[in-house]
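Q: I'm writing up a methods section and want to include an example of the input and output format. Could you take the sequence below and give the corresponding predicted structure tokens, formatted cleanly so I can copy it straight into the document?
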Amino acid sequence: MCFDAFNKVIETPCCHRCYCEKCLDQWISKSTSKTCPECRAPLDSISGCVPNIPFQRLINELPAQCPNKPLGCNDKLTRGILEDHKKICLYVLVDCEYGGNRCQKVLKKNYKEHAEGCPFRPVPCELCSASITKDKLEEHLGSCVGVKVGCPNKEAGCMESVPRGKVVDHVLVCDFERVGCCYEKEGCAEKVQRAKMEEHIVKFALEHHKMSREKIKKMEKELSDMSQTVDRLVHERTVLKSTLEQLTVLIPPLKYSPQYEMPLLLPTFFIEKSTKKVAYINTDTNTAG
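A: Here is the clean output for your methods example:
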């Protein structure tokens, strides 16, 4: 027994002695004789006991102290409302929902202030709307796609500042980006700024014309070679077709053999060179060929 003030008072059916519900339940569970602590009458469980309501009311009016008093809670309480008070006490220590074990426990009454300044609280980046913890926000700006950066062609003269995430799109239209000449396929290896492309084309028009002529001559030769190849293949096809027609006359049709479950050349044959006659070998073993 705890010998403390009663908590949830119940009364035994035998001697009507009052006990804490928890204390009496522990006594019975640990006792081998299963008897009442006072009169030793048989008592198997607390199910036969009844609450002592008048006694409980007196207990509820006793003064009580909040367990969070060392942290600053000075509320005047009674035992009857102590449990409800614990649920709403502002001086209980709670964990930070953002930092968890990385943050120290804080008083519930100070939690809102702590949460606003917690370095582990996710905050949206104002430039790209990404959710970043407060302690990583400065580091994030080093790679944030919304931060404006200079054009890669700054040294060439471009003074544009564009968001990091749109640099590639800007380079595709930047007048200072060096790009290949539109006659690159014809052989021009020059790379000029996009804004000066028209000037380059006019300046080297004669050279571009010569390159185009050379490419056309090369293509005409390739076309001629391809035409000759086609003619040769057509001739070979004609020869093969004629040979196939001659072989078709000599080879008898295929017949299906149930014994081998596949088409066979039946009957097999050979040509006698001396007489030029075709002799057939019958596959039927019961008859002569």
